[in-house]
Specification:
CATH class of the largest domain: Alpha Beta
CATH superfamily of the largest domain: DHBP synthase
Bound molecules: adenosine monophosphate, magnesium ion
Order of helices and strands: HEHEEHEHHEEHEHEEEHEHEEEHEH
Structural class: alpha/beta
Largest sheet: 11 strands, mixed
Helix content: 25-40%
Number of helices: 11
Shape: globular
CATH topology of the largest domain: DHBP synthase
Number of domains: 2
CATH architecture of the largest domain: Alpha-Beta Complex
Strand content: 15-25%
Strand order of the largest sheet: 1-8-2-3-7-4-6-5-9-10-11
Length: 333
């Protein structure tokens, strides 16, 4: 019955008028998940400074790994509170924002949380070319992560109905501004080094960027070199923050000199001798565990331990992404 189907819906859908925009900003500031219209597709938005909200976002999307997310801000002034812009990055920002261009720049510490940056020292920032999106961002006053509002592997949504087909009951609010103009994704430019590099072609044509730079745009180097020099795109993220000390997975006992990364309150044999002990989630909540992952790894890394022993962590839900991240941290380097 369609009436029953309607009753089962519990994600609120509001028109993108002044009241809807204010409510979206309120939900975001409170750590909620909002489907937000952008000029390309509906984005699944959350407060990028809040690791718990970001963990919920990854869980809602069902992503098997923590890809770094783009931080959306209302204008260049707000962008400067999130990342460090050199002269060239500033010229690009002033010329092409708002619009389909994302700039990767060195991150301002503490503005976008580690989890949203997937542990990278850089941050991807964009000022979207959609009035509703910018109005919400201005009202939130914090950077907002917004990957496409669909389950991982599904098609990007261009209407509220598409969003609800995937995420009804899982997210808190849909802000309805009608269908998006179906656009391509943003052009991503790496401005962390001497030369600007094109990481992903997109809505802003390469020629427009080259006209401003006054020379041809460097492409990210391919293959092995890319992984060593510019491991910036999905699947090439081997150089994410990794602890300086070795990481040992699925530890059921603790060796002398080790620190313990725990989960669910479990204390492996020998824990009483651990140099340090931090639990990702004493109650066994995988969203809380994801939110704590990077901060706990850093603290244990700085504890003076000679290695970090990680207890077994369930692999369902966000556990898969946590396992992926920990496997990278434990990989030989
Ligand atoms: P989208 O799927 O359009 O939200 O775009 C996300 C893209 O931004 C992914 O391809 C990420 O790899 C890329 N990205 C996000 N943060 C960074 C970063 N710090 N460095 C390089 N690429 C990034
Ligand atoms: Mg997508």
């Amino acid at each position: 019955m369609s009436a029953l189907a309607k009753d089962e819906r519990n994600t609120l859908c509001l028109p993108a008028d002044a009241a809807g925009i204010a409510e979206a900003a309120r939900v975001l500031a409170a750590g909620g998940l909002v489907a937000l219209p952008t000029e390309t597709v509906y984005g699944l938005a959350c407060d990028a400074s809040n690791p718990r909200a970001v963990a919920r976002l990854y869980a809602a999307k069902g992503r098997p790994s923590f890809n770094p997310l783009i931080a959306h801000v209302p204008d260049f002034e707000a962008a400067k509170r999130v990342g460090h812009f050199n002269g060239t990055a500033a010229r690009l920002a002033e010329r092409f924002w708002p619009g389909p261009m994302t700039l990767v720049v060195p991150a301002v510490e503490g503005a976008v949380c580690d989890l949203a940056r997937a542990g990278l020292p850089s941050v991807a920032i964009r000022v979207p070319g959609h009035d509703v999106a910018r109005a919400v961002l201005a009202a939130v006053g914090r950077p907002v992560a917004a990957p496409s509002a669909n389950r991982s592997g599904h098609v990007s949504p261009t209407t509220p109905a598409h969003v609800l087909a995937d995420l009804d009951g899982i997210i808190d609010l849909v802000l309805d501004a009608g269908p998006c103009m179906v656009g391509v994704e943003s052009t991503i430019l790496d401005c962390t080094g001497e030369e600007v590099r094109l990481l992903r072609p997109g809505g802003l044509p390469r020629a427009a960027v080259e006209a401003l730079l006054g020379h041809p745009l460097m492409r990210r180097p391919a293959g092995r070199q890319a992984r060593e020099e510019a491991p910036l795109a999905p699947g090439m993220l081997a150089s994410h923050y990794a602890p300086a000390v070795p990481v040992r997975l699925n530890a059921v006992s603790v060796a002398p000199g080790e620190a313990v990364l725990g989960f669910g309150g479990v204390r492996p044999a020998g824990s009483e001798h651990a140099v340090a002990w931090l639990d990702l989630s004493p109650s066994g909540d995988l969203i809380e565990a994801a939110a704590n992952l990077f901060a706990h790894l850093r603290r244990l890394d700085e504890s003076g331990a000679r290695a970090i022993a990680v207890v077994p962590i369930p692999t369902e839900g966000l556990g898969e992404a946590i396992a992926d991240r920990l496997a990278r941290a434990a990989a030989p380097r």
